[in-house]
Fold:
Amino acid sequence: MDAPAPAGKIRCPNCGALNREGAEWCGQCLQRFRGPEPPPPPASASTPTQPPSGPRPEAAADAPAVEVDPAAVGTRRGAFEVTEAGIQWTCRVCTSQNPIEAQTCTACGAPFAETVRDKRSDAITGNPNNAAMYSLFLPGAGHAYLGLWGDAIARGVIGVFTLGVAIASFFGNAPLVAATFGLVAFALWLIAAHDAYREALHQPGRVMIRTRHYGFVMLGVLGLLFMMLMITYLGLRAQR
Structure:
């Protein structure tokens, strides 16, 4: 079960990402949120129950235009672009622009789902349980099984480096460093298995460590190593 969203945030029902309260679509998977239905107007005794005879005024068939922040005009995210007319999506088939409300391309008729479909997920084939099991033996092995070699190499390097630091610290009489990096390596093993399982299920929105995060994870590991070495050094110096 997903954790409850903090105050001022809403959780996307599609991918679980947090968004600001009042957002019209998810900033991670671009799933459009359905706004609350307006309450019906109160009945009045003076209001006739039957519509007046004669021609009725034409009702506004179109939904009100989405207000666009002038500072956001020109912003592009994948197939979506913010213009003065509103949010537009670019058809993957014919590259024509269409309003966000359109379910099919106005030029070629291609469905909107074709544009937001993840091509990387289409190329992933494999059993989710096997992918998770391989990752428990070595981080990245499950991603290699799925054909995601870039992710496999990055996860393997980080996982092996972290485990190597833990083993070297254990034999180097640095139990605090060994215990800390042993826990980090264990966590990376479990996360790799979880992410490989989600990738095999074509659920990239539930992956915990994504491609753009590897650099930050490695910097965090190196920073933790430096901090633990400094603590160990100061402790040994104080014993002298």
About this structure: Residues 175-200 form the longest helix (26 residues).
